[in-house]
């Protein structure tokens, strides 16, 4: 495991999300209310790319069937419409130092 610089703190505003490749992992970076979070990129329902989703009330929303995930730990807040329970996203540790955002992977 190592820390990887993924963004400048000032380059993201609340509600922003984007994906980065770290080592062999696809990681989703999310900013909400001044805090940064990192999860796996692909929805655990049908692998939709969550970097094309959005943040609503502090949660990541998959626009495909509206599964909702908590960015702080990847847990499922709401299962997809018409679906049973789905697994959580993978969660990564994040830290901010001197204006830079780092993810451990
Ligand atoms: S692919 Fe994300 S909710 Fe179905």
In a nutshell, what does this entry contain?
With 105 residues, this protein is mainly beta. Helices cover 0% and strands 46% of the residues. It has no helices and 11 strands.
CATH fold node name: Rieske Iron-sulfur Protein
* CATH homolog superfamily: Rieske [2Fe-2S] iron-sulphur domain
Helix-strand sequence: EEEEEEEEEEE
Number of helices: 0
Category by helix and strand content: mainly beta
Question: Tags for this entry?
Answer:
0% helix; mainly beta; binds FE2/S2 (inorganic) cluster; four-stranded antiparallel beta sheet; single chain; 105 residues; Rieske Iron-sulfur Protein; 11 strands
Task: Explain what this protein looks like in three dimensions.
β5 (54-56) and β6 form a beta hairpin. The strands form three sheets. This protein has a four-stranded antiparallel β-sheet with strand order 2-3-4-9, with no helix packed on it. It has strands spanning 3-8, 17-22, 25-32, 35-40, 54-56, 59-61, 68-69, 76-78, 91-92, 94-97, 100-104. The N and C termini lie close together (5 Å). The radius of gyration is 13 Å and the shape is globular. It is mostly beta strands and 105 residues long. It is 0% helix and 46% strand. Residues 43, 45-46, 48, 62, 64-65, 67, 80 line the site of FE2/S2 (inorganic) cluster. FE2/S2 (inorganic) cluster binds next to loops.
Question: Secondary-structure blueprint of this entry?
Answer:
Blueprint: E1 3-8, E2 17-22, E3 25-32, E4 35-40, E5 54-56, E6 59-61, E7 68-69, E8 76-78, E9 91-92, E10 94-97, E11 100-104
Antiparallel strand pairs: 1-11, 2-3, 3-4, 4-9, 5-6, 6-7, 7-8, 10-11
The site of FE2/S2 (inorganic) cluster has 9 residues, from loops.
